[in-house]
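Review session, final week

We close the course with one last complete record, chosen because it touches almost every idea we covered. It is BTB domain-containing protein, a protein from Hibiscus sabdariffa with 444 residues. Go through it on your own first, then we will talk.
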Amino acid sequence: MGIQKDIVKFNVGGRIFQTTATTLANAGRDSFFGALFDDNWDLRQHQPNSSQEFFIDRNPDCFAVLLDLLRTGDLYIPSNVPERLLYREAMFYGLIDHVRSAKWGPFDGNRLKLSRSVTGRAPGDGTAIRAGPDGGCCVAHGSMVHVFDWMLEEHPPINLDYQRVNDIGWVNAENVLISACERLGKGDGGMGLFNSSTGDLRHKFNVVHDNQIKSYTAGALSFSPDYKIFASCKGRSNEYGIGVWDQVTGKQMDFFYESPGWSLGDADKLQWLNGSNCLLVATLFPRKDNCYISLLDFREKRMVWSWSDIGALLTVDEKRVRDAIAMEECNSICVVNEYDDLGFIDLRINGGSVRWSSRSRLLKGKLPDEPCYPKLALHNGQLFSSMNDCISVFCGPDWVLTSRLRRSYGGSICDFSIGGDRLFALHSEENVFDAWETPSPPII
């Protein structure tokens, strides 16, 4: 880059600052400072003399902190600078991503530290939590969805008027997709796209069957990189299966109807697999008496792989599958039971058995009065599994237990989610959620 070494002078709220064009270029093209450069990253000359001074009517203390961040990459916030004010100023200058990157390091499950806990307003009815792409999250409480930005400040809640929320998905930092139950006699339910900041409904997604728009219950959600939305759907007649919509236009693109003797419309979990261009669909105990896991290929409109515990010899309930996640690099699906036993199903064998890797003998103890079913997540090559009031982290080719995340307040973990370099865990008893972050490396 042809970056000049010119000295640049700013008058910010009456205080004079001097820096170089090279330092300002670290802010990036889309920042406030990027507008000061031409296409070749040479400083624009707004005045004929070289002693030009840019006046900015903003807070000088915050400017000093942000300028040091551009110089060194480190974030130091003096005690006289409120964090909220600094974040507001960082938003103005287009440096909020720089602040976030400096405030906590790249995500690593083995180095996570509890950053903050947030208590909800309606104890005991939290059902789902989803991490946003920018470090925020949203939490479902019955028919309400509470949205929090990356500073964990709550936005106006989204109220679905007594329709129970089944799942939430972040389309991007500005929009969330919500699936909800149909209310008999009301003709509502289904899916809606909402503005995450205002809570306003932007679009409602329809299911069309026999050229007629049908009311339906939408369940589990998933997204693909080519802007498709997938949702499990249950209608009143034959609309049981997986619907597909265009994320940009909102139009229904396809519908995969469930075959007799199988279960798709009641799915607990959907997961898009980029490598195979297939959708994992898992319907699990206790929603159904049996567990059904399948891979759907929408290009060929067929089920290319399936597994079920129908007919399997279950001597004890602990072998019931409570959650499942595909691990494409390992050609397997990982499952978990209520005692945190991990199991693996070979994707190369259709209908194969579960190879259980039991650790329950090490973890067993008295279960809570109201235990929550375990959940699984896979992130950056690390496997996470919730169990009672803790989350276990597994690493390596043999998925060895390497660390646990635990806190004593809030009861069992009913759901957790990873995104925006944070892990969020939702507790059941006190309706409190935790934000876990990887600390930034120490300044040497």
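Two points worth writing down before the exam:
The two ends are 29 Å apart (CA to CA).
The chain has five helices and 33 strands.
Good luck, everyone.
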